[in-house]
Amino acid sequence: MRIVFLLSRADEPGDVPRAVLTRASHLAARHDVEVVSVFRTRDRPHAAPDARVALRHLVDRTGPVPVPLRPTALTDRARQQLAAAPSALVDPALGPDFDALTDTELTLALRTLDTDVLVTASPALLRAAADHAPAGVVRIHESPWAGEGALPPGTGECDAVVVRTEGARRRLAAALGAAARGPAAPKPAAIPYPAPGGFRPRSSRTTRTAVLAGPLTRADHAIAAFAAASPAGSGWRLRVFGEGPEPPRVRRRVAEPGLYERVELLGPSPHMAAEWAKASFAVLPSGSAGVLEAYAAGVPAVAYAEGGGAADVVRDGVDGLLVPPDDVDALADAMTRLMAADAELLHRLGTNARAGAGRFAAEGVTRAWEELCAELVAVRAPARGAAEPGERASVPPR
Question: Which label site among 139, 141, 144, 255 has the fewest CB atoms less than 10 Å from its CB?
Answer without folding.
Answer: 255
